[in-house]
Amino acid sequence: MVEYEETPVIDPQTGQATAPPVPPPDIIEKESPPIGPEHELSAPPKKPSNFLGMLGNVVLFAVLFALGVGASVFLRQYLAQLSEGGATTQTAQITVVPTPLITQSADPYANWKTYQPISGLTKQPVAGVTLKLPPDILTPICDGPTCASQGTYLPGGTRLTIAPRGKGQALPTTVGAIMTDAGGREFIMKEASISGLPSQEFTGLFAGTTGGGYTFAQIRGVVVHGPEGISLEVNHFTPTGVNANWDTDDGLFDKIVGTIVFKRTILPTQVVTPAASPTATLTQ
């Protein structure tokens, strides 16, 4: 508390001290109450730092991002396992279900048509001798009035010739003979085995003429010797002036030759005497 000491006022005329004037009541200073700790003004709350707020947002975003990535990975793994499980189940079902057996024919040429060569003497099919031809090939027809041989064309343009030889046929056997064209040019010959039967294979890599008058640029054929003295000659050649696909037809020719079948049967009693010469001229 602040105390004020009154200073006496000295009158200049009398020289006596007088009491000081009393101040009006409204200007009397009032003592301020003491300010204790409990009356101290509290400081205003400090606002959070902007840096801490930003850091919290970053941490929150990182946590949410990590949770999202983890959930995505888990979902993908779950879907993958679910897919693999379904595929495995389906495969197991396919394995368990019995597959119907497809019976394949033992004969790869079952849809080919069977052809019986025609005898030049009887003009009838030779009994017990057959071969097969593709379904898109025309049935062979007689090469001439004697019908000693029959012919047709293969898809590549070469001509296929079929002729029975030997006992009861118009053409002689070629056993022990050297085959030539109509002009006497010899073919290259070699022994072979076709369908388990002794055979001869001949090739002519020259321009020549068949016994029926067909001119050719090249020729290849076989003579298969069956039981009871009967043989079957099959050849194919490129006619002169024809641009044939030899390689394709030659492959088909081998397949046709592989279908030759001989069955034992009673042959006609009439026998044609082979030519005295050991040379057998090629058929048409």
- Shape by Cα distribution: rod-shaped
Work out the number of β strands.
15
Q: Mean of residue pLDDT?
A: 81
Beta-strand percentage range:
25-35%
Q: Let me know the largest β-sheet.
A: 8 strands, antiparallel
Succession of helices and strands: EEHEEEEEEEEEEEHEE
Structural class: alpha+beta
**What ranges have pLDDT less than 50 throughout 5 or more consecutive residues?**
269-279
Instruction: Return Rg in Å.
Output: 62 Å
Task: List the total number of helices.
Answer: 2
**Span between N and C termini?**
158 Å
Write out the CATH superfamily name of the domain at 113-281. Mog1/PsbP, alpha/beta/alpha sandwich
CATH class category name of the domain at 113-281: Alpha Beta
- Under CATH, the topology of the domain at 113-281 is which? Protein Transport Mog1p, Chain A
What percent of the residues sit in helical stretches (DSSP H or I)? 10-25%
What would a concise description of this structure say?
With 284 residues, the protein is an alpha+beta fold.
If you had to describe this structure to a student in words, what would you say it looks like?
It is a single chain. With 284 residues, the protein is an alpha+beta fold. 21% of the residues lie in helices and 25% in strands. The protein has a domain at 113-281: Mog1/PsbP, alpha/beta/alpha sandwich (Protein Transport Mog1p, Chain A). It has two helices and 15 strands. The strands form four sheets. Strands 5, 6, 7, 9, 10, 11, 12 and 13 form an eight-stranded antiparallel beta sheet that branches. The longest helix is centred in the first third of the chain and has 47 residues, at 50-96. The protein starts with 8 loop residues before the first strand and ends with a strand.
